[in-house]
Amino acid sequence: MNDWAYGAEHQNPHGLNDTVLNFFMVLVVGNEGKGIAPGLQPHLDERLKIGMTSRVESLNVSVATGILLHRLAEARLEG
Question: Residue 62: in which H helix or E strand, if any?
Fold first, then answer.
């Protein structure tokens, strides 16, 4: 089994909708202030971000996680 570790970061250049997702996976979501812990960074295969058109810098971690999980569920159903 090839597991992928994805990290969600608002400063990342790769948008969630532009990423080919691999399943089985681990999704790592950092806290709102400091993001993903530096010790976990080297273990991530890819970093994701939620594309936003507003001027909001970042989302609350629970809101961001809900959006990410919804998109991951869609991707899983698609294919």
Answer: helix 61-78
Strand-pair partners of 46: 6
pLDDT tens for each residue of 5-31: 888 877 766 677 777 777 788 889 888
Order of strands across the sheet that contains 4-8: 25-29, 4-8, 46-48
Q: Which helix H or strand E contains 78, and what residues bound it?
A: helix 61-78
Task: Tell me 10's DSSP state.
Answer: T
Instruction: Give strand ranges (E) for the chain.
Output: 4-8, 25-29, 46-48
The tens digit of pLDDT for each residue in 36-50 reads: 899 998 999 888 888
Full-model pTM: 0.74
What gap in Å lies between CA 18 and CA 79, rounded to an integer?
Answer: 15
